[in-house]
Write a structure and sequence with these properties.
With 281 residues, the chain is α+β, with helices and mostly antiparallel strands. It has two domains: 119 residues, Winged helix-like DNA-binding domain superfamily/Winged helix DNA-binding domain (Arc Repressor Mutant, subunit A), CATH 1.10.10; 137 residues, Jelly Rolls, CATH 2.60.120.10. It is 40% helix and 21% strand. It is built from nine helices and 14 strands. It is elongated.
């Protein structure tokens, strides 16, 4: 038996005699920050501050041209294929943005929180929405119609610069997702996403990390570009190998370093001989 497995057994015995760590109230994904598939948990929320440099007068003009909207939990904000009419600035609440393939299969593009905007990449109307957005919680938004957006960009140069910064943040988001989907195996994406959740919502318990967030296998599958059945199978395999422990309330990363090694080229090559790299059909 390897030293790492012995260490894991020791940790399990230790937990039998020590009280479990006190956990704060469980977070509902994504928490209070944006979340998307990325090779790091750093910088996920950069776009939330794209309007921070606006003056109070500029904000007043923005609100004068905008329209306040409210969306209930589960309500569609816009749907893939709808005609584009403007952008939505999230004032409060959480939004799930996703793409639906012709087969009906969905992939999560991002979870956006307060301060971010949705409705791109079109900005000034004339096209269609190429993905959908749904309220994960009750949301309040400032909707800027395309016609008003054109006018504001001309009249408020500072707002135009802010908008460019917001678009740059969105570009980094979707570039990170494309890089992960195009260059990492599905196992690596799963391991990386679990590690990111551990950094964002983890609570230390000895060497282990308890992910203190409510996340389903469906959500994980849509994020890493897989299926719920495959995620369930892999989580069972990870649990059998002592990498994680899955309970009805939490995912506990027992061996963070081993999971992190799985995203390295060397570990990925070794894993190919032990773990299925493709999804079940």
């Amino acid at each position: 038996m390897g030293l790492e497995m012995l260490s894991t057994d020791f940790e399990a015995k230790r937990r039998q005699h020590e009280p479990a760590p006190e956990l704060p109230q469980q977070v509902v994904l994504p928490g209070d920050r944006a979340l998307f598939l990325s090779e790091s948990a750093e910088g996920l929320d950069d776009g939330a501050h794209f309007l921070d440099s606006l003056t109070s007068d500029e904000w007043a003009k923005l609100r004068m041209h905008g329209r306040r909207l409210a969306f209930a939990t589960g309500q569609a904000i816009f749907t893939q294929g709808d005609r584009h009419g403007g952008i939505f600035i999230i004032e409060s609440g959480k939004v799930h943005v996703f793409y639906t393939a012709p087969s009906g299969r969905q992939i999560t593009l991002a979870y956006w929180t307060a301060g971010h905007f949705i409705g791109g990449p079109e900005m000034t109307g004339g096209g269609i929405h190429i993905w959908s957005a749904e309220a994960l919680s009750d949301c309040r938004m400032l909707f800027i119609p395309a016609t008003a957006l054109k006018k504001l960009v001309v009249e408020l140069p500072n707002f135009a610069l802010c908008l460019l910064q917001g678009l740059a943040a969105k570009g980094r988001c979707y570039s990170a997702m494309a890089q992960m989907l195009g260059t990492r195996s599905v196992i690596e994406r799963l391991a990386q996403f679990l590690m990111n959740l551990g950094k964002l919502h983890g609570v230390r318990d000895g060497r282990a990390i308890v992910i203190n967030a409510k996340v389903t296998h469906d959500q994980i599958a849509a994020m890493v570009g897989s299926t719920r059945q495959w995620v369930t199978m892999m989580m069972k395999r990870f649990q059998k190998e002592g990498l994680v422990t899955v309970t009805p309330r939490h995912i506990r990363i027992e061996r963070p370093h081993a999971l992190m090694e799985m995203v390295s080229k060397r570990a990925a090559g070794e894993a190919a001989f032990r773990l299925p790299l493709t999804e079940p059909r």
